[in-house]
Amino acid sequence: MGKIRNAKIIILFFLILLFSMFYSCPNPVEPVTTVYIAGYYNNGSEDIACYWKDETKVDLETSSKSKANSIYVSGSDIYVAGYYNNGSKDIACYWKDETKVDLETSSTSKANSIYVSGSDIYVAGYYNDGTKDIACYWKMEQE
User: What is the pLDDT of residues 43-56, one digit of tens each?
Assistant: First the structure.
């Protein structure tokens, strides 16, 4: 009688183990990843700054030659560093959610990288002093 009881306990144990393997494991959830890329494209006559969110292209500047060089996403805000041409020189700027903000310089300048920390926006780039390019950064506070 003891051998039959031990066999029933072993069978019950394996049934519980088998059941728990199939029904207690959660279904794996694929992580949601969004890809952002800054850049530009040529519309046939000039370069146009834009960014891509996954496969969707968003134009940033359509009225002049422009390029986007860097992108930073903070919450629901999208920041893009780059430059545009005002007809006589390149102007460093950044776009926050498609709104352009010029970076202060009196000469040709370009923005190459952007980073946001709290309410501070940091943009790295350079300007030309008339004879050479000089590396610099701009720091702004969000309004």
Answer: 999 999 999 999 99
CB 126 within 8 A of CB 136: yes
Integer Cα distance of 31 and 15 in angstroms: 33
Instruction: Confirm if 123 and 92 have CB atoms less than 8 A apart.
Output: yes
Q: Could you tell me which residues are beta bridge partners of residue 123?
A: 114, 138
Number of H helices, E strands in the chain: 1, 10
**Total residues belonging to the chain:** 143
**What residues does each domain of the chain span?**
36-141
pLDDT tens, position by position, 75-109? 999 999 999 999 999 999 999 999 999 998 889 99
SS3 61: coil
Q: Give the C-alpha separation, 111 to 80, whole Å.
A: 9
User: CB–CB of 95/60 below 8 Å?
Assistant: yes
